[in-house]
Recover the amino acids of this structure.
């Protein structure tokens, strides 16, 4: 996945918004999809499909302990290490309290996660799909069949939000190669420098600097692990098996494996929202990856309007 991304200017956003017709929405798994279709004022305007993730952040430490539902507490007291956070494999990592500065920094970096998934795909509808066609005064004799730009937004405190618990791990344990962290449920230990294993409802302050952020945001918008996305039955049933993160180099590089790459297989949440909004039988789309922000997306297709046959007078 490229580290570059397209960010429209305020004027570009406003201009595009004014050329959009009424919007249609659908909510799937707490994520709202909004489809905006062109009004016809701009004959080069594509449609926009924006997924919006509402979210909240719970900063857990000695003052706020939190819980993982039926899976038990997140913050636990260890007799040797003091207050610890329990990771996805039940290993305990010592934590520090949050302060105003560390919270402010995390919030800013977390919000930038929006850029990871924004403007990555363009959906090119099939030839028999005319539900978004529009006409423009600038192109008489044609209707325009827009492509669909896939956008992503994150809104703090929005309704239908995803709650992320966040802990601040004591960085000293990652610097000491001999430091062992214990398991909450067993007698096992492992080197602390091997890392804290975050999950969809628990992040650390370090995750905003790693591929973990994009991966967990992927889960928040209803992405599965890469093998489940490929239809692997075992990973659909047990998604957290190690193999579900990828077996081939290509799978491992995917953002829903252990890497950072976003590929066509990751467009699923946008397809699901589009299908729900427009209805009808499942459609087969062509997906175009938007990897270069300097290259403009494909414009709408021009479809000639069929001319009616002339009507001749009848003889009496």
């Amino acid at each position: 996945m490229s580290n570059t991304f397209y960010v429209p200017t305020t004027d570009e956003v406003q201009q595009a918004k004014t050329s959009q017709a009424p919007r249609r929405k659908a909510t799937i798994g707490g994520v709202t999809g909004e489809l905006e279709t062109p009004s016809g004022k701009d004959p080069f305007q594509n449609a926009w499909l924006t997924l919006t993730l509402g979210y909240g952040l719970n900063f857990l430490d000695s003052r706020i302990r939190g819980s993982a539902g039926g899976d038990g507490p997140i913050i636990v007291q260890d007799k040797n290490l003091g207050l610890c956070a329990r990771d996805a494999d039940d290993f305990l990592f010592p934590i520090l309290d949050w302060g105003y500065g560390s919270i402010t920094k995390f919030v800013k970096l977390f919000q930038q996660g929006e850029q990871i998934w924004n403007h990555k795909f363009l959906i090119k509808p099939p030839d028999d799909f005319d539900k978004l066609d529009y006409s423009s005064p600038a192109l008489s004799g044609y209707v325009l069949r827009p492509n669909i730009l896939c956008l992503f937004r994150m809104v703090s405190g929005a309704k239908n939000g995803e709650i992320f618990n966040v802990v601040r791990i004591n960085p000293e344990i990652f610097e000491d190669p001999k430091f062992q962290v214990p398991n909450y449920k067993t007698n096992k230990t492992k080197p602390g420098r091997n890392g804290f294993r975050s999950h969809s409802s628990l992040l650390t302050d370090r995750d905003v600097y790693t591929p973990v952020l994009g991966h967990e945001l992927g889960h928040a918008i209803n992405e599965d692990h890469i093998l489940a996305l490929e239809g692997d039955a075992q990973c659909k049933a047990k998604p957290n098996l190690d193999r579900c993160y990828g077996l081939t180099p290509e799978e491992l590089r995917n953002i829903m494996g252990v890497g950072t790459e976003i590929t066509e297989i990751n467009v699923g949440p946008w397809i699901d929202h589009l299908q729900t909004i427009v209805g009808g039988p499942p459609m087969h789309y062509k997906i175009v990856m938007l990897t270069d922000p300097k290259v403009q997306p494909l414009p709408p297709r021009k479809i000639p309007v069929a001319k009616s046959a002339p009507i001749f007078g009848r003889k009496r």
User: Anything to note?
Assistant: The longest strand covers residues 47-60. The mean pLDDT is 88.
